[in-house]
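Re-run requested by the PI after the first attempt was lost when the workstation crashed. Everything re-entered from the original request form. Ligand of interest: NAP.
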Amino acid sequence: MTIIIDGKAIAKTLKDDLTAQVLKMERAPALAVILVGDDPASKVYVRNKIKACEKTGIKSIERRLPADTTNEEIERTINALNEDDGVDGILLQLPLPKHLDSDRLVQLISADKDVDGLNLRNVGALVAGIDGLVPCTPQGSLRLIKSVIDDLNGLEAVIIGRSLLFGKPMAQLLLQENCTVTMAHSRTKNLEEVCRRADILVAAVGCEKMVKASWIKQGACVIDVGINRMENGKLCGDVDYEAALEVAGAITPVPGGVGPMTIACLLANTIKAAG
Ligand code: NAP
């Protein structure tokens, strides 16, 4: 029987825990979200994050800036939030409009308030195994893996995708758990064969149903990070889910797997930043 990893339920348990933590704090933690422009998907993401904050007792501060905002204006906004003692976490919703220098702007967020874990100090801390703010999606994915596997020691983990936001931090987290980690990407040769070695297979590509059942080792734990919109308008992951159910030992659905964990871990990071 394949275990379907219920990200919604696991995220709810975590959020209940966080709500209880917030109640014990002297003041409510505060998360500032900067949204630039009118990208519809970004607006939905920001709305969901703010709703989740409210439910957990975290104060949310929204800074909406028009699409033609300059780098300097965003820089001023970030600096003001960095200096504001009432703000614990700062999130710059990506992607930014093309004329803006995302890489540079992200680095302006103070490492102590960097709830996305993208500041190079936090990136370095993760690599060095020092405590810091860890990117939300890999953090949430690790929690999902641990919900079905007690002991990760020595397991073969394959991650498809090597972005700074997901693949690289995911690899570091699994390495810290003593997995033998392989990072695959668009230049990987024999990808199918590489994937078949995995006790834990994590797909973060953004390519609809790319991972076939024949790529999956019998009984493997499959974490599907991809979010793709199909022609019929519905969402699907990077894994051919229905076929994978026949082979995997455990698998995350899309939607309802990794997605809810990303938001729960954002709340966790905000509380950590406030602590
Ligand atoms: P990204 O920055 O575009 O990275 C995609 C990675 O996939 C790259 O490393 C790329 O390799 C690799 N890749 C592309 N085509 C490939 C192929 N044919 N074979 C093997 N590898 C291939 O994307 P991302 O930000 O990491 O996100 C990946 C997916 O996860 C997207 O669908 C995104 O929407 C989703 N996501 C979901 C959540 C969530 O909360 N559920 C959060 C973040 C991201 P190269 O480096 O060689 O180009």
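Saved to the shared folder this time. The two ends are 42 Å apart (CA to CA).
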